[in-house]
UniProtKB/TrEMBL annotation:
UniProt name for this protein: C-type lectin domain-containing protein
SUPFAM superfamilies, per the entry: C-type lectin-like (SSF56436)
Top-rank taxon, per record: Eukaryota
Organism of this sequence: Poecilia reticulata
Pfam families hit by this protein: Lectin_C
Domain C-type lectin, first and last residues per copy: 29-145, 153-257, 256-371
Length: 373
């Protein structure tokens, strides 16, 4: 039972330090300066790394922009559009997942322009908070998020922009277009003017590794061209890293990524999971920020249990939650503050819903996430 400081120290891999060890990124990027078609690049990345790069947020974009490409102006990324892909709804803000059961469409919507040639792939909202699909090139006022705490502006900009330019403005000046049913239906929004854009869009693009990340960073001049099928996406090395699409048969350099975490689909107690990770990989995973959380929550969707173990445990005598990697527990996403009434508990992430953290008894058996480095 975890009832003593000795037990607490037993599970820490490293000696105590004044500062926690630097946390390696959960995924790493590699620029490959070889000209290949998109499919050849995908095969190369899967053989030597994990896959063609998946881009999840603006921090990833800054990492890509800093990749050395002295004699090249662009490179393939892991985004592809095929005729057989169905259009799927996404929220613009990374980490907010679209739930078909929690929508607020106006009567008869979405109409998709009567299935004409020009599709309606973006969404604006009327005075009653009802959603209507519209062409993404249409110009509307719009609503932005401000910060990770999902603060909603109680006023917005009397500037008309296309959906993509509105998204770009929000990302540059604030965080993103307002996203998620909970935030869009907030009472403060009702006080605002009619027909603002919200962060809901749909497209047919898919990531090579099968992940469902909604982040897009298209060139603002692409307009609706990025909906052309049988195309692949590349990033430009021009300071902004905006994406353009092109025939996948063109030969270009490309960017791979290495995944530093792995989901183990075996049911083990927390202690057994810890020893497994340390024997076969590195450690149970540590989550230090929202970007880590988003990466891990994509992994846990494939789990066979309702929860997955993380490297988060509770020292009873110290009344303290700790990461077994020695990282300080700063970032938290508990479903509710866990009561400290049980010494034999550790932290697990739910594999569905909002992927929040829950305390669970150490003896319960779940899948788990290991870090590789």
């Amino acid at each position: 039972m975890k009832v003593s400081l000795v037990y607490f120290l037993h599970f820490l891999r490293h000696d105590f330090q004044c500062f926690p060890p630097s946390q390696l990124p959960l995924y790493e990027f590699h620029y490959i300066n070889e000209n290949k078609t998109w499919t050849e690049a995908q095969q190369y990345c899967r053989e030597k790394h994990t896959d063609l790069v998946t881009v999840t947020n603006m921090k990833d974009m800054k990492r890509l922009i800093n990749i050395s490409a002295e004699d090249q102006s662009e490179a393939w990324i892991g985004l592809i559009n095929k005729p057989e892909f169905n259009r799927t709804w996404f929220w613009s803000l990374p980490g907010v997942e679209f739930d078909e059961s929690e929508t607020n469409w106006a009567a008869g919507e979405p109409t998709d322009n009567g299935n004409q040639l020009i599709h309606e792939n973006c969404v604006h909202m009327n005075k009653n908070l009802k959603w209507t699909d519209t062409g993404c090139l249409n110009q509307h006022i719009f609503l932005c998020y401000d910060g990770e705490n999902v603060h909603i502006f109680n006023s917005y900009f009397y500037v008309l922009k296309s959906w993509q330019k509105a998204q770009s403005y929000c990302r540059e000046k604030h965080t993103d277009l307002i996203s998620g049913t909970k935030q869009v239906l907030d009472g403060e929004v009702e006080k605002l003017m009619d027909q603002p854009y919200i962060g809901l869009f749909r497209d047919t693009w898919r990531w090579s590794d099968g992940s469902s990340f909604s982040f897009r960073h298209w060139n603002l001049q692409c307009n609706d061209e990025q909906y052309i099928s049988d195309q692949c996406a590349m990033t430009k090395f021009d300071g902004e890293g905006r994406w353009t699409n092109m025939s996948c048969d063109n030969e270009k350099p490309f960017i791979c990524y290495d995944d530093n975490v792995i989901l183990i689909k075996e049911n083990k107690t927390w202690e057994d999971a810890l020893y497994y990770c340390r024997d076969h990989h590195h450690d149970l995973v540590t989550i230090t920020n929202m970007d880590d959380q988003r990466w891990i929550q994509e992994k846990v969707k494939e789990a066979s249990t309702d929860y997955v173990w993380m490297g988060l445990s509770y020292a009873c005598t110290l009344d303290l939650w700790f990461w077994v990697s020695d990282e300080v527990v700063r970032y938290k996403t508990w479903a509710s503050n866990p009561p400290m009434d049980d010494c034999d508990m550790s932290g697990a992430m739910e594999t569905g819903g909002e992927h929040q953290w829950f305390k669970r008894n150490d003896a319960e058996k779940f899948n788990f996430i290991c870090s590789k480095k």
